[in-house]
Amino acid sequence: MIWQAETTGAICSASPRVVSRGCVPLADIAARPLPGVGIFVGASMYNGQWSVMLMSSGKTIDQISCQGGSFPARKGFSITVDGVLRTVDTVSVPQSLQGEYRVAVQRDGAVAEDRVTLDMGKVGDRVQC
Q1: What gap in Å lies between CA 62 and CA 59, rounded to an integer?
Q2: Terminus-to-terminus CA distance in the chain, angstroms?
């Protein structure tokens, strides 16, 4: 679940399966690269895969890919901060695939590619993207 806190305006995340991940102040969101894609508040394990929350600024994520595998983004929350649309998406990736992922995005109505590094720590054997 993702929401905007009434008192502070921060964007927060929590899950019934995982201890609350926390909140990100609007000033920190406004300071993110534009356009850009990055990790929002980390990742958690769910059913043997990493569930990663990504925030895109000035674009929308379609999917991420690594080692020939494509992983669709699921829209979670959108907010305009300092005139820029910021969107939080969730993506599930195998725990063994870590490193720099290619990110297929839509920016100004055109298809583009970005990169994001997902490195959640050593968990078993890893394959680099």
Answers
A1: 10
A2: 29
Domain 35-128: give its CATH code.
2.60.40
CA-nearest of 109, 69, 105, 65 to 87 is 105
Token pair 């699921």: residue: 74
Q: How many CB atoms lie within 10 A of CB 27?
A: 11
65-to-60, 74, 80, 92 alpha-carbon distances in Å: 15, 14, 27, 11
Task: Select from 1, 123, 118 the least CA-distant residue to 52.
Answer: 118
Provide the pLDDT for residue 46. 79
Per-residue pLDDT of the chain in tens (129 residues, 90 and over written 9): 888 999 999 998 887 665 556 889 999 999 998 889 999 987 888 788 888 999 999 989 999 999 889 999 999 899 999 999 999 999 999 888 888 999 999 888 888 999 999 887 655 566 677
Identity of the amino acid at 66: C
- Domain ranges (residues) in the chain: 35-128
Measured CA to CA, the distance from residue 121 to residue 56 in angstroms comes to 23
